[in-house]
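ok, trying the design again with the full structure, not the truncated one.
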């Protein structure tokens, strides 16, 4: 008895009530701390839990990031988007069942059941697995404290059965639900809009697979839903599909079409498209690339933002049609909307922002991360329901991006502008030349692409890197901004643990006017900056290729015929000449020609390497 009591006493206190955004694509936990809501993030993790469950042949189900990775190879064992099935009957979701890898039937009270390896699982039970994973993430971030109470969000259009199913999922996961809150209401709370006496709010939420627009009325700090509209099958995935379609058409000329239908390849293609889409939200151009099955070749294709925007325009138009219907249902005119809130990862796309701004005729709220704002608002609600108060809404954000100077003189952004503080991000770097034992870091602040156009906050050096070939050293650079805005940059070499750091106060000597001036300059120069960055990148790449080729020629000259050597030497000469032009097109051509000319050399080197490895093995085994 006494022993049991001791055990209980040793358990860390459970966490105060948290907010959970139980999303179709991603779920996220946030908690009230230091006077404001924060996303719960374990060290080295962004805290996102993909709402995805993988069922291995044996052993317990795998949830979240690991599940999404496994899904690439075994989509037939993975459940995505379980939220679509919550509280619904078989007939309601007939179309969605097609994309479900497990057979479904109608169980007790008409609840859907999936037959997973001979076990019947309801959407509630599967959702509970995602919630348990959220609990695990929260525990990992808080020294093992259990997630016991939560406010959980659901779409405004969820009916009673869908809300009840969400409650049941929480109960199965051992979580007490303080309240089920509408997602648009939570997003508005995160922006403190409840502090307004009255007004009308439009919440535009474009997530991974669904689009929702809600019109809310605020009356003395209380939100009332006037109308909802949307499309349960329109989201980021459809934007990805636009790029996948272009890729498939172009690939079909060079790749056996049957390969293009293989689930693993398709999933890889989707991921490559999503990556390209996300990059296009920050850069005017991005490259999509993918390994061609059964070959050493890669398919590469550059997309400009304009091109992608033209492809996705019809999708954006469809969201605006829904906005029109929502306004008409709420008997309001766009001019009567006082606040517009953006939610969902896809609203990071500049074209989406611009379209929404134009439609409602006002600048939407974007200071908070659109994919975190629902969880943050749920955390505000959880805090208030647990008896907490909220006087002023603190929303400290980094006014300008922070990053490092790269070898080519570009700015590598590590913490983006408008990140809520405290925050942290880690990025990997490596050495540029062989046997390099030290790296100088230049910490930068600003939005421009070239280091020389940004503000240098300080420099530091990491030494003690063991000599090794260029590109092999693994150096993790961590940017951390604490609640007081103090930035600590730490660089650590992984094999020896050698590290160095610097502390700076990024806001020192920077007035609001300076920030505005720096932002204006970044917008004005975006196009030129991008070209300059591309030049810097290509020069760096050519530099690395030139050095590797020089070395390769020394090792393998005797194995190449004269013709090939002359070709390589010609290409090297053109590459060196191209480096003095500062012209992206000339550099790109030189790079491509260089790659082509050195192909035979690369093949010989690979072959030598394989033989060496093989010999080593045989000797080792004797
Ligand atoms: P959900 O509410 O459906 O769970 P999220 O709000 O997390 O989903 O949105 C996920 C979607 O946002 C994905 O399609 C993802 O590719 C997209 N996304 C994330 N970041 C960006 C970005 N920077 N630009 C464009 N789309 C993005
Ligand atoms: Mg969402």
């Amino acid at each position: 008895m006494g022993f049991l009591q001791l055990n209980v006493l040793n358990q860390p206190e459970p966490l105060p009530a948290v907010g959970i955004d139980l999303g179709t694509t991603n779920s996220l936990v946030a908690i009230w701390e230091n006077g404001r809501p924060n996303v719960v993030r374990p060290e080295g993790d962004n805290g996102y839990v993909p709402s995805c469950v993988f069922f291995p042949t044996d052993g317990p189900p795998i949830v979240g990031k690991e599940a999404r990775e496994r899904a690439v190879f075994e989509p037939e064992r993975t459940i995505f988007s379980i939220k679509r099935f919550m509280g619904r009957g078989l007939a309601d979701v007939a179309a969605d069942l097609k994309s479900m890898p497990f057979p479904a039937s109608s169980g007790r009270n008409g609840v859907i059941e999936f037959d997973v390896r001979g076990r019947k699982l309801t959407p509630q039970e599967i959702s509970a697995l995602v919630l348990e994973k959220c609990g695990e993430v929260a525990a990992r971030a808080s020294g093992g404290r259990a997630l016991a109470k939560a406010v959980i969000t659901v779409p405004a259009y969820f009916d009673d059965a869908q809300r009840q199913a969400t409650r049941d999922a929480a109960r199965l996961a051992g979580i007490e639900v303080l309240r089920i809150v509408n997602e648009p209401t939570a997003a508005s709370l995160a922006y403190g809009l409840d502090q307004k006496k009255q007004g009308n709010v439009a919440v535009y939420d474009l997530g991974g697979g669904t689009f929702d627009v809600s019109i809310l009325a605020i009356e003395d700090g209380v939100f009332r839903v006037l109308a909802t509209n949307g499309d349960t099958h329109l989201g980021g995935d459809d934007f990805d599909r636009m790029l996948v379609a272009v890729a498939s058409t172009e690939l079909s000329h060079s790749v056996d079409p049957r390969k293009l239908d293989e689930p693993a390849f398709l999933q890889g293609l989707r991921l490559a498209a999503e990556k390209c889409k996300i990059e296009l939200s920050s850069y005017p151009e991005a490259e999509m690339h993918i390994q061609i099955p059964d070959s050493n070749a890669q398919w590469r294709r550059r997309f400009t933002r304009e091109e992608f925007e033209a492809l996705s325009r019809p999708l954006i138009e469809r969201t605006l049609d829904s906005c029109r219907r929502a306004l008409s249902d709420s008997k309001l005119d766009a001019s009567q909307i006082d606040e517009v809130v953006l939610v969902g990862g896809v609203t990071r796309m500049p074209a989406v922002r611009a379209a929404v701004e134009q439609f409602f005729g006002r600048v939407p709220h974007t200071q908070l991360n659109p994919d975190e704002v629902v969880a943050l608002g749920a955390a505000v609600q959880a805090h208030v329901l647990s008896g907490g108060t909220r006087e002023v809404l603190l929303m400290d954000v980094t006014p300008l991006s922070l990053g490092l100077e790269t070898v080519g003189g570009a700015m590598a952004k590590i913490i983006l502008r408008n990140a809520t503080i405290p925050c942290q991000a880690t990025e990997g770097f490596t050495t540029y030349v062989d046997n390099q034992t030290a790296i100088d870091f230049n910490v930068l602040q600003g939005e421009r692409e070239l280091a020389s156009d940004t503000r240098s906050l300080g420099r530091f050096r990491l030494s003690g890197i063991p000599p090794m070939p260029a590109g092999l050293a693994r150096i993790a650079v961590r940017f951390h901004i604490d609640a007081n805005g103090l930035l600590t940059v730490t660089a650590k070499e992984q094999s020896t643990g050698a590290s160095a750091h610097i502390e700076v106060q990024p806001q020192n000597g920077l007035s609001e006017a300076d920030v505005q001036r720096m932002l204006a300059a970044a917008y004005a120069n975006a196009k030129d900056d991008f070209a300059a960055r591309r030049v810097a990148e290509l020069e760096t790449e050519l530099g690395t290729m030139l050095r590797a080729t020089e070395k390769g020629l020394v090792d393998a000259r005797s194995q190449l015929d004269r013709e090939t050597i002359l070709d390589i030497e010609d290409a090297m000469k053109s590459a060196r000449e191209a480096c003095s032009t500062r012209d992206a097109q000339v550099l790109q051509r030189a790079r491509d020609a260089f790659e082509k000319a050195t192909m035979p050399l690369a093949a010989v080197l690979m072959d030598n390497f394989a033989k060496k490895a093989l010999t080593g093995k045989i000797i080792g085994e004797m």
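Keeping the full-length input from now on. Residues 526-556 form the longest helix (31 residues).
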